[in-house]
Amino acid sequence: MSASLARVLLIAACAACGDGLTITDAPAVPSDDLRGLVTVQYLDVDQPVGGLRVFFQDVDSSLVLATRTQRDGTANAFMAPGGFVTVVEADEVRLFTFAGVMPGDHLIVDRRVRHSTDQVTVTVTVPEDPGAVGYQVRTPCGQHNFSDLWPVRGSTATLDFIVSPCDGQVSDMLVMSFDTLDTSGPPRGFLYRPAVPIEVLSNPTFTGPFHPPTTSTISLTNVPEPSQLFTMVQALGTKPGLFTAYGALTRGAGWSATLRLPIPPGATVVTRIDEQAAADRISSFHLIDWGDFAAAHTIDVGGAALHPLVGRPTFEPESHTVRWREGPEGAQPDAVLVELSYTRPGLADIAAWRMIAPHGAETTARFPVLPAPELGPHATDDPNVFGITTLSTAGGFDAIRGNLLGRFQNNVSYPIDGATGHVVLEILN
Question: How far apart are CA 207 and CA 390, in angstroms?
């Protein structure tokens, strides 16, 4: 079979790949171009995922396909390299656009939140930690403090722990002991169990002895002169909430600080460094590392930093372009997340349009001109660029193009994927 015949058969087989809803037929795909199938999927647990408007557009905003998501939240079309895919939420005031799309992409708008309104009572059996006063049991979905439950010293005790199964029906669980009733500081000891069933009548049992916490030292090098303060966070596991320790790194302390963490064997540790920029700075440096635990962690700030933002971003309604300025220091980012808001009479709420795009040599990002003019901002809609985040990571724009929208905003934790990873961000303050 010739390559051209195979391509024609593939196109014929996917003639209904759009959505199953009659909106606009996809144009014929020339056999000699570079188009390939692109799929987008919208994920949510509280709102419908089917029937959402989706626009597939070429790089010049010409329409490839206007369609709607299927029951599973998916829609697809054949696209040439470099185009746009936009998903419109049901209220039509939240839009998500992928720029620089490539044939073969599977794009995800993940709006699932890590909580559940369901509550399950789990009965936990824990031993005593001799000498401890306060205790805490935690999952990524909740926590419970308790104190003296042991009528007989050295025995075990049970407690009912009400928890929401936010991560499904299993969840990691951590029991920590403390020298006082204050459980906000570092623990005295800990016990850990992965993949505990979160269901009625579940009775996870922990056995002693409690393990001592591990010391973790974070040091910064090559810190630019204007910087005076960084906050640091280390978290156990790739899902926030199980255990998090906080600290500060200052020039006066030599850019070094130590934390104490409950580290079970084989645990993944997430380290985040956030610059607390001076009032005259409009952006700040942020770095996130995750992987195996290391007792010492050294970060070269100057070597990792991206270009700082030095001018407030503006939006040009006529060209649908956001412009900003960057300083010469640091490295060029791989990607930019742009967040635009606007309002007009008749909208149910302030509209928010988020786009992930490649970061090129020019500090601009162009939104597509949608084929539905009622959706996009006009000059009279008071458009405002409320978020600019530039990013750099291993694998570049290709590594994050398809999985960042919905999961990350400029004031929300970065989504952690995989056993190891590293990302540097410069965020508009």
Answer: 46
3-class secondary-structure state, position 397 = helix
CA distances from 357 to 93, 319, 335 (A): 20, 16, 6
Q: What is the pLDDT of residues 181-230, one digit of tens each?
A: 888 888 999 999 888 877 765 788 899 899 999 999 999 999 998 888 99
User: Is the backbone peptide bond immediately before 383 cis, with ω within 30 degrees of 0?
Assistant: no
Pairing of strands 74-79, 36-43: antiparallel
Q: What is the pTM of this model?
A: 0.85
CA 335 – CA 332 distance, rounded (Å)? 9
Q: How far apart are CA 114 and CA 73, in angstroms?
A: 19
**Residue 376 CA from chain centroid, whole number:** 25
Across 267-291, b (16+ Cβ under 10 Å) vs e yields bbbbbbbbbebeeebbbbbbbbbbe
Specify whether domain 214-302 bears CATH 1.10.10: no
**Distance (Å, rounded) from C-alpha 367 to C-alpha 321?**
6
